[in-house]
Amino acid sequence: GATVLLLRACLVLLASPIYLLSFLGIWEPLCRKVFPFILGKISIFHENRSKKHKQELFRNLPEFRGPSGALRLLEIGTGSGPNFEFYPAGCRVTCTDINPNFQESLVKNMKKNQHLQYERFLVAAGEDLGQVASGSVDAVVCTLVLCSVHSVSSTLREVLRVLRPGGAFYFLEHVAAEHSSWRYFWQQVCYPTWKLIFAGCCLTRELWKNLEEAKFSELKIQHISIAMPWMPIEPHIVGYGVK
């Protein structure tokens, strides 16, 4: 514990300009503007490493089409839209994100993926999807988002509310490493500074526990490793739950 605290203090010193900006109330609005650019650079590497997992994850999406034959999909934390290429043709997508500054890169990705029908873009947090009617979507997708929501349990309650009975929630998230591992040690060291720099991203959430506690009638979770050299986000979970 003492070693973790010492190394955390070293990181705080290295990142002291950011901590000062945060104290002055400047960092958060600045981060909202620059985060889409930073995330775009980092996500290219992550997307290359996670592509095969996403292809496998979304393979059975067409099975959850509604009675009309259409697939109504809501994505929480859409960002720039890196998941669009994996959705089936004709899928009707509603995009949401708490940060409206993603819209420019999102529009570019929409133009690249015209096999989809885009319904609307909502500025909304995962915990508050009040603009979406209950039981109105066939699938909800959330990738690399549950790490940064204020309340995982509230977000999952909203997911279950907006899903129709028999609909599915798809997820791919980085999670806490094994507690006895060096990865977990470094996750603890990096936690405060990482959370500040990366818009509230929490490194040590055991998200599989939240998913198991949610009221899904069927839940499939797989623990995987997505190699991210020099970054403390290698352990992931992937899967889906059915309402």
Describe, in plain words, how this protein is organized in 3D:
With 243 residues, this protein is an alpha/beta fold. It has one domain: Vaccinia Virus protein VP39 (Rossmann fold). Helix content is 40%, strand content 22%. The chain is built from seven helices and seven strands. The protein has helices at residues 2-14, 16-23, 27-57, 103-112, 152-162, 182-197, 207-213, and strands at 72-76, 92-97, 117-123, 137-143, 163-174, 218-225, 235-242. Strands 3-2-1-4-5-7-6 form a seven-stranded mixed beta sheet, sandwiched between helices. Helix 1 packs parallel to helix 6. The model has no long low-confidence stretch (mean pLDDT 93).
List the helices and strands and how they pair.
Blueprint (H helix, E strand, L loop, with lengths): L1 H13 L1 H8 L3 H31 L14 E5 L15 E6 L5 H10 L4 E7 L13 E7 L8 H11 E12 L7 H16 L9 H7 L4 E8 L9 E8 L1
Parallel strand pairs: 1-2, 1-4, 2-3, 4-5
Antiparallel strand pairs: 5-7, 6-7
Helix pairs in contact: 1-6
InterPro entries: Methyltransf_11 (IPR013216), SAM-dependent_MTases_sf (IPR029063), Thiol_S-MT (IPR052356)
Keywords: Membrane, Transmembrane, Transmembrane helix
GO molecular function, one term: S-adenosylmethionine-dependent methyltransferase activity
